């Protein structure tokens, strides 16, 4: 090959490489700038994700829905849609976390063997909590939207509810395993793509909305784990019971803006009844543990 041909091939390779980089940048930019924040079966109304047919009054989804999205049912009060109370059974396995690259900021290296367990597919809703209230086992909360995630309860109240349901709060390592899997994903859905349609974050003062509070449980189906667990990051942070007897709030919330607050291993100590902390329940696996959602 002569010098001219070799130069042409070199330039062609450079152009192809540059084109590939440009394509990746364009795709990434488009995903970061994606304004969609609600699942495809939900209606974006003002700063909220509501069921079709609802409107927003004082930051709440109100009115009778014309239909409920998949994985939801019409509320007992018929004033909204509520995430189905599903238990998802995980077979357990090796949990391995470590600071292996520059995106692993904030991770506390840990190795653990997690036994099989069950966990709620969605955060506990106000409708579920109301059953506990009627039984006299939980205190009453404001429940304008029965499908909204419970928040503003302390971890002992969350434990009491879970016992009422035949479960308990997730242990820290169980919650982590559910969120990051044995492969150590950065986010519940994978290792890239933190955008508004996958997690309910930045709703109070941007970037995904302004002036909004917690969402209905389950409005971000694009952010589900491979097993179908919803809202493990964003919406409300979630109480977990730690091995040393303390409690942590995990996964960030609707108030979170920094990426570091929304990675699967994000956790912080909290006190009292924070308005952006809720929970889901975990369940001991029977001898013959079922697989998948129930």
Describe this structure as you would to a colleague.
This protein is of the alpha+beta class. It has a domain at 87-288: paralog of FGE (formylglycine-generating enzyme). 20% of the residues lie in helices and 18% in strands. The chain contains four helices and 16 strands. A four-stranded antiparallel beta sheet has the order 15-10-7-16, with no helix packed on it. It is globular.
Global mean pLDDT: 86
Q: Any low-confidence stretches, pLDDT <50, length ≥5?
A: 1-34
Strand order of the largest sheet: 15-10-7-16
Roughly how much helix do the residues carry, as a percent range? 10-25%
Outline the biggest β-sheet. 4 strands, antiparallel
SS elements, strand count: 16
What order do the helices and strands follow?
Answer: HEEEEEEEEEEHHHEEEEEE
Radius of gyration over C-alpha positions, nearest whole angstrom = 21 Å
Q: Which oligomeric state applies? A: single chain
Please give the count of helices. Answer: 4
Class by SSE composition: alpha+beta
If you consult CATH, what is the topology of the domain at 87-288? paralog of FGE (formylglycine-generating enzyme)
The CATH superfamily of the domain at 87-288 bears the name paralog of FGE (formylglycine-generating enzyme)
Q: Give the strand content.
A: 15-25%
CATH architecture of the domain at 87-288: Alpha-Beta Complex
């Amino acid at each position: 090959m002569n010098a001219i041909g070799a130069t042409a091939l070199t330039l062609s390779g450079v152009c192809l490489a540059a084109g590939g980089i440009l394509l990746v940048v364009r795709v990434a930019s488009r995903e970061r700038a994606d304004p969609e924040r609600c699942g495809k079966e939900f209606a974006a109304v003002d700063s909220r994700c509501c069921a079709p047919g609802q409107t927003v009054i004082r930051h709440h989804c109100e009115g009778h829905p014309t239909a409920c999205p998949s994985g939801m049912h019409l509320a007992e009060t018929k004033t909204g849609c509520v995430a189905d109370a599903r238990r998802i059974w995980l077979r357990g396995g090796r949990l391995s976390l470590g600071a292996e690259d520059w995106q692993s900021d904030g991770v506390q290296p840990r190795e653990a063997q997690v036994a099989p367990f069950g966990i709620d597919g969605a955060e506990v809703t106000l409708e579920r909590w109301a059953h506990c209230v009627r039984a006299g086992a939980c205190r009453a909360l404001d429940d304008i939207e029965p499908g909204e995630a419970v928040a503003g309860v302390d971890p002992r109240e969350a434990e009491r509810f879970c016992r009422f349901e035949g479960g308990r709060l997730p242990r820290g390592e169980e919650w982590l395993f559910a969120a990051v899997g044995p492969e150590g994903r950065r986010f519940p859905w994978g290792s890239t793509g933190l955008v508004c349609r996958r997690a309910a974050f930045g709703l109070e003062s941007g970037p995904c909305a302004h002036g909004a509070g917690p969402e209905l449980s389950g409005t971000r189906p694009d952010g589900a784990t491979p097993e179908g667990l919803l809202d493990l990051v964003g919406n409300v942070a979630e109480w977990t019971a730690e091995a040393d007897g303390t409690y942590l709030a995990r996964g960030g919330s609707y108030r979170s803006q920094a990426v570091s607050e929304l990675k699967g291993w994000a956790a912080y100590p909290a006190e009292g009844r924070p308005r952006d902390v809720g929970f889901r329940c975990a369940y001991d696996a029977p001898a013959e543990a079922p697989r998948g959602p129930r």
